[in-house]
Amino acid sequence: QVQLVESGGGLVQPGGSLRLSCAASGSFFSLNVLGWYRQAPGKQRELVADITAAHNTNYADSVKGRFTISRDNNKNTAYLRMNSLKPEDTAVYYCNAKARLSYPDIYDSNYWGQGTQVTVSS
Fold this sequence. Notes:
Elements: E1 2-7, E2 10-12, E3 18-26, E4 30-39, E5 46-52, E6 57-59, E7 67-72, E8 77-82, E9 91-100, E10 109-112, E11 116-120
Parallel strand pairs: 2-11
Antiparallel strand pairs: 1-3, 3-8, 4-5, 4-9, 5-6, 7-8, 9-10, 9-11
């Protein structure tokens, strides 16, 4: 089982920056993919960025060049650095993990954090 705890959300002005953190704990063998998703009011949850254990990254077009996802495998922690924030970035941001609970499991299990609010407003 994997527990994900997010932090770092808050209120920021347009053009500002924010850094989100997601700490994973529990009993697992590997965190194969860590990702950040967001959901704005009245809209569907969407992928923002994800990163594999090998540090391969994937970004939504809307955040490419502004956001950077990273992970510290020793700390089992994922980060999302958000620069040049826009009001359109306002949403609840969720951490996601695709994890294998034990060796040599074939299938990944999917886990979600509780979400952290990011509000970009002047």
